[in-house]
Amino acid sequence: MENAKEKKISYRQKNLTKCPVCMNEFYREEMLTGSGRLIAGKLSPELRRIYEKNQKYGLVVPMAYVLTVCPRCLYTAYPKDFNEIPEADLEKVRGLSQARVNTVKKFFGDLSFEDDRNLELGAASYMLAIDVYSVRDKKCAPTFKRAVSSIRAAWLFGDLAVKYPDRPYSKISLFFYTKAYGFYEQVIELLQTGLEPVDAAGNMGPDTDKNWGYDGILYLYAFLTTKIGSRENDIAKRILNYEKTKRYLSRIFGAGKASKSKPSQILDMTRDLYDKMNEQLDKWTQEGIKE
Fold it and tell me: Looking at the predicted structure, is the pLDDT value of residue 261 above 90?
């Protein structure tokens, strides 16, 4: 019989982490790497890395382990921000502790962050991060982090919808896609105004395997426009959304040498998305003429 230790996906840090909000001490969980735990597959059109199910370890989802969550008050943050929190932010986060507990209970029932991370805990962690960063200071680039947390929440709730088709996770996933669409639009504006420091945004992913940076932000916003922005009842508004987003996509193409320095993968995906948007625009324009 194989040693159970060999099948472990994660471990607990030796040193205790102290929550700055409620002073609770806990051992942070970290994902183990190596030994063939991760079998990386294709990159999805949403820039999500698809991981194949491992015969030995099962399905491992790296993004589920990223956020640090206090098991007691559910204060949640990306590791760099967990302890670096101003006093003013502390008071706001502390005041919302019970609301966080109630939210998790509403969506998941009894869920404990003392347990090993799984899809439920991963999805809950990003849901909590979106709420916590709503009251964090602009110095930690909260809008950037709410954007990436929203798209990851959408993905993980989508995974839960496949696992539990009888539960309302599909609707929750769509809700977070919509949140991501709004946040990525704000992020593009922030990149132009500098009201939040880009260097504090960290890895904008959107997944954990690669930081696609500015190109990834523009591309993902365009993709979300096709997924969420196309739901506008007014065709004229849909056309306006698509035309604006096409201009963002054209920035990724660049010109001459500029485009040669970009990974072919995102260039190919951008061109495909650009062509699909043009096809849809032609269709809507024809519909508009008929009306």
Answer: no
Rounded CA-CA distance 63/31 in Å is 10
Report residue 284 as tokens: 């809507």
**pLDDT at position 133 over 90:** yes
Helix, strand, or coil (residue 273)? helix
The total domain count for the chain is 1
In a domain, 19, yes or no: yes
Tell me the residue range of the domain where 115 lies. 8-231
The answer to whether residue 34 sits within a structural domain is yes
Nearest to 216 by CA among 172, 258, 266: 266
**Tokens 């015969």 sit on residue:** 55
As given in the structure block, the two tokens for residue 125 are: 């962690």
Strands (E) located in the chain: 10-12, 17-18, 25-26, 29-31, 40-43, 49-51, 68-69, 76-77
**Mean pLDDT over the full length of the chain:** 90
Average pLDDT over residues 78-87: 96
